[in-house]
Amino acid sequence: MTEEIIKYDPDFTEATFITKADHIYMMMLDAVMEKDLNEVKHYLSEDVYNYLNSMVTDYTSRNVIRIFDETNVKTSSIDSYYTDEDSINIVVNLTSRYMDYFMDDNGNYLYGANDHRVERNHRIVFTKKFNVKHLNEARPCPSCGHSLDINASGVCPYCKQIIDMSNYDYIVKEIDSI
User: Fold this and answer.
1) Closest by Cα among 23, 56, 57 to 40
2) Which residue segment(s) compose the domain that 146 sits in?
3) Are strands 109-129 and 87-104 parallel, antiparallel or unpaired?
4) Closest CA to 178 of 40, 62, 13
5) pLDDT tens-digit profile of 110-165?
6) Longest Cα–Cα distance in the chain
7) Which of 83, 90, 141, 168 has minimal CB crowding within 10 Å?
8) What's the CATH number where 171 sits?
């Protein structure tokens, strides 16, 4: 399947892609736990961002913190890929293990699995536009014009504008659950 994906994305390597997928998944968990999506927003489609943001808004309104503890990705693999008119989409099956529980804002345990790890399977779709700009090229911030490295945080260090990663790399198009 890798050879077929390379036809659409000549820079694709499976190992690098899986490492990035695992990392972005872990960043999503951390962002939900911290109730701050800024560090991961640039890797998310609008739909996935809205999904996670509604979760964070709900937890904030209820004064609870969702804790993901002893977290790891057990396995992840490319299940399939498909194309649409302007992008390639790669479907990843990811199995994670972690303790998943809730605490109040004072640090008191409320409910959930805080004494054992649960195992969860996820279907995550990553998408990348055809003919995107290469990440390793120096590029100006579209907002203020300063040169920036969007891999660092996805935020311009000068004007704090969030950079749209979909113009450069794979982003999370869909995730079944957190």
Assistant:
1) 23
2) 2-175
3) antiparallel
4) 40
5) 999 999 999 999 999 999 998 776 655 556 777 787 776 655 566 777 887 777 77
6) 53
7) 83
8) 3.10.450.240
